[in-house]
Every structure is written in C-alpha cells, then in structure tokens.
Amino acid sequence: MSGPGYQQTLGGLGLAAEGYRPGTPPAGLGGDAADVDGPAARESHCPECGRTGRDYRPWYRPAHMFQPGSYRAFACCAACGHVEEF
Ligand SMILES: [Zn+2]
Asked: Could you tell me which of 50, 67, 69 has the C-alpha nearest to residue 59?
C-alpha cells in the first residue's frame, strides 16, 4: 500500500468511471468554489478521528455534448482515511 489510506476510498467511489478526473476544475466549472473549498478542507476537523487539517481532493468532469460539467470536492483525512464530500 502506498499513499494515504483515503486514496483507495476515493478510487472506490467510481468517479473515474463516471468521467471525472482529479484536479482543480477550470473557472466556470467550480473553479471559484475550489478557492473556498481548498482552505476550508485544510482548516477542517476530521469527524472520525478529530485530526485538524484534511487534504483537499477536487474532481471535475468537463462538459460533454449535452451533459453539463460537474465539480465534486472531497475532504480527506490522511490520519484515518476518512473521506467526506463537500
Ligand atoms: Zn481522521
């Protein structure tokens, strides 16, 4: 196993299968929200183990055909692996 435990949890959500890719979304697709969500995650507390400061893991799906783009963000605890969506 390598990396924080939440990597496996994130992978298990099936985001990639739904067309999402990891990374900060472009402006207009949640880029503005990312400016807020990033610091919020880093200052937040893990509800599972109480650790302060979680990793911010943004995902987004570009608009395609008639499907609008989408942005999803997760606060992930490197200590216990807990994953919480914003
Ligand atoms: Zn935790």
From this structure: 69
